[in-house]
Amino acid sequence: MRRFRWDLVWDAAILLIAFANVVLIVFDMSYFALRPWYIRHWSSLVAWYDPYKGVEPHWTTDRYRQIADSLSRLWQASQGQLPDSTLHAFGDTLFRLSAQILSERPYERFGLMGYQEGLKHAVKSFLATTEGVHLSATQAFRRFWTLTPENTPGRLALYQNELRWRLQVCYYRHYALDGGFVDKFWKLDLPFLVFFWLEFWAGWWTALRTRQYRYWWMYPLMHWYDVLALTPVEALRFFRLLRIWKLYVRLNRSQLLNFSNTVLGQVLTRQSRTIAKAISNEVAYQILEQLKRQAASGENIAQLQTLIAESGTFVGELMARESPALLRMLRQQPALYQLMETSLVQAAEKELPSIPGLPRERLLGWLRKTAHSTTERLLRQAETYLASPEGQAALRDLTQAFFAHIEDRLREPEMQEKLQAYLHQVLSALQRNFRLLPNPSQ
């Protein structure tokens, strides 16, 4: 009997939640592009989601639709027996609204002019087909909404099939206090955001407990895509689509589904590697080009001078603070004493002549003991001195003087020319060796 694995259950739950979140994000990102299709085929979805985006029907087109719907209901209720005066009143109102749409162009604000053109084309084509007339847009709407008991059924049928949904496409979107559009998508996304933040913190805590990385900050650095994806900023919402790749990895790792041996899996793997290589090559090439331009202009040298000038004091303080501990650690290293003893004994064997009456092994043994005690004494004295205020001040001054000397050398024109030439050669060699030069044919 196979052992029940809770980790697979957890992976499956994560996959389902991640998939639902990705579907929701893709739906939100594509909502306005697909809203006309939703209006025709899934109007209840539009009625539910429009308030989250601060959307309401445009007052002109909505008024147009309400009046035309009222006319359709009255026509059906009266079984086609409406008085001419009622038809004329409705027709005049609908024509005025049509002319208002043509002049105000409410579709233009959100890039929907194609649907306004669709209104004109539908009316003009209808009149050309049924009455054989070719009119301008204003004249066509005037003739179209000149209603009689005979032509009203055909015009209402065209309204229901071609005009009504195009009127619903036009909308107005409210502004928020920050000047941007109202967007309450965060209300739907918040449960997913909280869940995946908890998962991220749990993964970080597990990595710390198991010592997966050497430093505590390595986990968010290695999972940078999660940090960006979980940042509640609309501009970074695109990075959440990277969770698709994480979803793919989890599917293969948990063995719930294995894509690796399928045609789809092989295509995805091959294409992802190609894209990753192309992107990394282009990024690396641009970075090297930028560094070469900085090297040619001397900007790198100036940055190095600034860095050295600012680092002298910091490094001096660091050396003064850590040197006693470093010397204390060295005193506890047997290899250091062994090195000093071996070096002194080897030098004595080569340089010291034989002394009559003094065995050579005894002399070498005394030298070993002397080397050990002398090394330990020197380290203790150095540790004591560097732990004192005088020693720390001397070490700080020495470090700052060293950095000041390097800074002065970097100010010399000859040294700057040599460094610029060296940096240019190194960066050019990197471009050649790693073959990062762009190839337009690829």
Descriptive overview:
The structure is a single chain. By secondary structure, the protein is mostly helical. It folds into three domains: 101 residues, no CATH class; 119 residues; 107 residues, no CATH class. 75% of the residues lie in helices and 1% in strands. It has 18 helices and two strands. A two-stranded antiparallel sheet has the order 1-2. Helix 1 packs antiparallel against helix 12, helix 2 runs antiparallel to helix 8 and helix 14 crosses helix 16. The longest helix has 35 residues. The C terminus is likely disordered.
Report the count of strand segments: 2
Please write the string of helix (H) and strand (E) elements: HHHEHHHHHEHHHHHHHHHH
Helical region count? 18
Radius of gyration: 40 Å
* Overall pLDDT: 78
- Ranges where pLDDT stays below 50 over 5 or more residues in a row are 436-442
Largest beta-sheet characterization: 2 strands, antiparallel
Taken as a percent bin, the fraction of beta residues is under 5%
Number of domain units = 3
Based on CA inertia axes, which overall geometry fits?
elongated
End-to-end span in angstroms?
Answer: 53 Å
Global structural class: mainly alpha
Helix content: over 70%
> Which strand order does the major sheet show?
1-2
